[in-house]
Amino acid sequence: MQVFVAGIFLLAPALFIWLAHHQRWAARVGVIVLCYVLGLVLGNTGVIPAQAQSLQQGVSEVTIALALPLLLFTLDIRQWSRIAGKALLSMVLANVVVFSLAIMLYFAYRDPDPQGAANLAAMSMGVYSGGTPNLAAIRTGLDIPNAQYLMFHSMDTLVGTVYFLLMLTVGVPLFRALLPGNRPTAPSQLHPEPVDEDDYRPLLRRANLGQLATAIVLGALVVAASVGLAALLATEGESNSAVIIVAITTLGIALSLHRRVRGLTLSYRLGMYLIYVFCIAVSSMVSFDELLPLDSTVAVFLLVTVFAGLVLHALLCRLTGVDSDTFMVTSVAAVGSPPFVPLMARALNNPGVILPGMTTGVIGYALGSYLGISLGLYLRSL
User: Fold this and answer.
1) Residue 189 has pLDDT above 70, yes or no
2) What is the pLDDT of residue 294?
3) CA distances in angstroms from 108 to 100, 301, 308, listed in the order given
4) The whole model's pTM is what?
5) Is the pLDDT assigned to residue 355 strictly greater than 50?
6) Which of 58, 94, 148, 298 has the most CB atoms in a 10 Å sphere around its CB?
7) What confidence score (pLDDT) does residue 338 get?
8) Which residues touch 381 (CB under 8 Å, ≥6 apart)?
9) Long-range contacts of range 220-224, CB-CB < 8 Å, 24 or more positions apart?
10) pLDDT at 48
11) Quick check: bond before 293 cis, omega within 30?
């Protein structure tokens, strides 16, 4: 039975990716949402037996640990300022706003559950710096209860959908009126078209097996070294998950400085596939009874962080001279994650913002893990 469950975890994302490419409704819902829904159904219908709990826990921990370095390997950290320009400044401003709001909300809601408020502040910091990989990493690093994690992510999906629709429609004319202009860039002036990160077919081609094997081995070595470092630094009675996640992030960035590692272009897609597997495994461990009633505190954290944060981010960009299109694409990269950047660029009719938007979004994966875990540990110590 456990082999059957493991097969579902590993193969279901491939089905959802195929559906997203062939069915409009699946593309609108999104692969991550479909993975979470499947996990919740599996965990609440008796399909997964109670004795499979160790398998669920193991799959969730291994996939997120291996996914992080794979997502970071293609990051060219030395090209930040040259490629991103104003986008780098906008990303920093977005992180400053989220960091400030998360701390403010923690102090507003720390009674009667200071650790719960610290968890929400940490997850807010992580998910709105670059997306789901940060949220998953912070959940693991801080040992956040599954029920709280799933409730946060479920509500974040709804809030994020509303945010994204507003940015694609009302946001374009509104922020172009409020912020300095940015003329659309002609396609001929651009860097060659970016790789379609939603196309997972290259992972199945025999010609790419060598690159995939190299990426997996490097990722596994990063995880092993991080676990070893955490064991050396372990303190009795304290979880070493945070040390593992931060070490993985640091080593992943360090390896990305090597040109041949950055050339492992398929590692990003492989990492995202593992994120999908993680989503199914972790959501399957939660029952609906644990999610009800819905916590209004989670809703306040999300609504204030996203929409008040959007307004404050826009004001800071106006004061610092960041143009409208750069503001919008970096905001989407932070709140939604890099896969949403091309859609925003298309709505802006400005393909020139795709590359800086994707770059800052991937950088957000690294920054979010650091800031989220650090913020959570600091607030817990108060």
Assistant:
1) no
2) 67
3) 13, 10, 15
4) 0.64
5) yes
6) 94
7) 67
8) none
9) 220/66, 222/69, 222/248, 222/251, 222/252, 222/255, 223/65, 223/66, 223/69, 223/248
10) 84
11) yes
Report the candidate in 359, 292, 38, 39 with the shortest Cα–Cα distance to residue 148.
292
Q: Is the peptide bond before 184 cis (omega within 30 degrees of 0)?
A: no
Q: What is the rounded CA–CA span in Å between residue 185 and residue 333?
A: 19
Q: What is the pLDDT of residue 190?
A: 38
Task: Provide the residue type at 374 as one letter.
Answer: S
Question: What is the per-residue pLDDT across 122-151, written as a single tens digit (0 to 9) for each?
Answer: 999 988 886 766 777 788 888 888 888 888
Distance between start and end Cα atoms, the chain: 45
Percentage of the chain beyond pLDDT 90 is 27
Residue 112 contacts by C-beta under 8 Å, 6 or more apart in sequence? none
What is the CA angle 43-26-39, rounded to 5? 10
Q: Are 127 and 368 in contact (CB under 8 A)?
A: yes
Q: Distance between CA 103 and CA 382 in Å, rounded? A: 12
CA separation, residue 19 to residues 13, 16, 31, 214 (Å): 10, 5, 9, 29
> 249 CB contacts (<8 Å, ≥6 apart)?
68, 72, 137, 366, 369, 370
Pick from 70, 95, 127, 49: nearest CA to 265:
70
Cβ burial, residue 29 (10 Å; 0-12/13-18/19+): middle
Quote the tokens at residue 337: 């994650």
Q: pLDDT tens digit string along 97-128?
A: 999 999 999 999 998 889 999 999 999 998 88
